[in-house]
Amino acid sequence: MKLMMALLFTVSTAFAGNLTEVKLAEITSNIDYDTGRFFLINDDNGDVDSVRYTNTAHSGRVNADQVYPWHQVLDGIILVERNGYEVLKLYLEPDFSPKTGGVIRINYLYNGATGVRYNKNLTLARNTESFFIKDGEKEINRMYIYGNWKVVLGLVGIASIDTLYTNPIPPYLP
What's the gap between Cα 118 and its chain centre? Predict the structure, then answer.
């Protein structure tokens, strides 16, 4: 059994290489007390290898912890699904480059009753040190989601996504 575990560890670390993980942004909302976090996983050259998304409840319970190869995010990944609705989806635009970055599109459900969806476009940019996210010309590391509440129906979707920058992001607590 110990030999089997040693072999599995050796094989998994051999494929992992020297990947590094960088926290890009934290997401909170007025809908629930969950906290979402975006991480970028870079290869030996500092280029984008994959994207990691975690979602943690206020109690500390991990709701989601997924790693997606960057080319899979080109086709879109569902970050939040509720009651059969794809509430929050993440895309990389087709001209995205793992070396330089590109446009990140967050597609969100504005109103589940009518099916209206909107996009929030951000940019993954690279400087000499690492990647970071920009909203227009402003560097950001936080997003806040406002729920779209209707009097009779209650929560029907996401009204808007605001971005801001605070320095530094508090450390990640598992």
Answer: 17
Distance, in Å, from the CA atom of 38 to the CA atom of 111, rounded to the nearest integer, reads 25
Annotate 80-111 with DSSP letters as a single string. EEETTEEEEEEEE-TT-BTTTBEEEEEEEEEE
The helix (run of H) or strand (run of E) holding residue 82 is: strand 77-82
Distance CA 4, CA 19 (A): 24
Whose CA is closest to 67, among 59, 82, 77, 80? 77
Within 8 A by CB and 6+ apart from 168, the residues are none
DSSP class of residue 167?
S
In tens, the pLDDT along 109-159 reads 999 999 999 999 999 999 988 899 999 999 999 999 999 999 999 999 999
Q: Which tens digit of pLDDT belongs to each residue from 84-104?
A: 999 999 999 999 999 999 999
Strands of the 20-29 sheet, one edge to the other? 62-69, 48-56, 35-42, 20-29, 142-150, 154-164
User: What pTM value is reported for the model?
Assistant: 0.82
